[in-house]
Design a protein that fits this description.
Blueprint (H helix, E strand, L loop, with lengths): L1 E7 L3 E7 L7 E3 L6 E5 L10 H15 L27
Antiparallel strand pairs: 1-2, 1-4, 3-4
Bound molecules: zinc ion.
Length: 91
């Protein structure tokens, strides 16, 4: 089920819960019965975990405004194994 928002010209906005993809462009107002037009609003992301919201924001930013680098990143030094590992028995 998904939440869809409609705007009645007389009573204001209300929400309906319908299976995803089945919402029509208009819906009868539950108070006055007049046709109300569908309103598109941002999904309810405030209840999503903060890490998920940050990942979604980063993904959208990356798609719309990708970071541009001016030079090739420097080669990172290869980490050396800890010297204690050399004393371990070899197979
Ligand atoms: Zn109404």
């Amino acid at each position: 089920m998904a939440t869809y928002e409609y705007d009645c010209s007389r009573c204001g906005r209300f929400e309906t819960h319908q299976p995803m993809g089945t919402a029509s462009d208009s819906h009868h107002c539950p108070e006055c019965g007049r046709p109300a037009r569908r309103v598109f609003s941002a999904p309810h992301l405030t209840t999503a975990p903060e890490q998920l919201r940050a990942a979604l924001d980063r993904e959208q930013r990356c798609r719309e405004e990708p970071e541009v680098v001016a030079e090739v990143p420097r080669k990172q030094p290869v980490p050396q194994p800890h010297r204690a590992l050399s004393r371990l028995p070899r197979p």
